[in-house]
User: Fold 4-hydroxy-2-oxoglutarate aldolase, mitochondrial from Vicugna pacos.
Amino acid sequence: MLGPRVWSSVRQGLSRGLFRTVGAWASGEGKKVDIAGIYPPVTTPFTATAEVDYEKLEENLHKLGTFPFRGFVVQGSNGEFPFLTSSERLEVVSRVRQAMPKDKLLLAGSGCESTQATVEMTVSMAQVGADAAMVVTPCYYSGRMSSAALIHHYTKVADLSPIPVVLYSVPANTGLDLPVDAVVTLSQHPNIVGIKDSGGDVTRIGLIVHKTRRQDFQVLAGSAGFLLAGYAVGAVGGVCALANVLGAQVCQLERLCLTGQWEDAQKLQHRLIEPNTASVLTGPASQVTRRFGIPGLKKTMDWFGYYGGPCRAPLEELSPSQEEALRLDFTSNGWL
Assistant:
């Protein structure tokens, strides 16, 4: 059972959060929040003793805040959220809210394995400043995560969330795709505004866009590696780890796609594929297993003037040969 304080927050927050959605963000009566745009999934900096380094987090945000991002994703996969305590997850969101520009959206990853824990985390993240909750699929009992089970889970979370909900499908980490039929059903919920799809299957993204076209529902590509393709089939933006180091270039790709400059967009996209494959965690499982994930992303952040620093155990730093291969992916495409 949810505790009394959480239920009180839910009752008070539902009206406040949904009113804010249609009143402050949306362009018309009854419209859901517009999440279109580019979002870097913010990494969590750690000290040499594996404590969260809030000072470095704020420094990174001040630098990232100079780019025309729509907002920031906090406590996504690249934020190492499974390695943080609940209190650390909330403190990171609070610090990001305080440090980021006020006109940006803050999407906070609130997913947990149980529905009850996800509701409690979502309510708590709303209280510390999240504008929307990005909820990853529960996966520990993946064999029982049928469409019906996932629809029930997300419906309950969205019913009780004081802020809008963004679905999050990342099969490389969870071992399961949020089924298209479940996405279509959930798109009809008034408090579910879209999905971040990190699977890299552009056919699937296009199908979701097509089947939800009558709903006020938006799709974000989960990687810069297929951002152009995502825009081509109807996605409205992306949550792109590569934007942590090549923010200007990812935003430029967005502009080229939105203005129909497809030839230039294609050239830029080609130059982003190898660095993206090498340094991000999301994407098809084959990319994740053969490349460098969060340690690679953090290493490139160090190269580009941000603080990457170490990951939390059990993630290990790159070996010298891996670092050399990572650097080659950036230098060969003209970024270093």
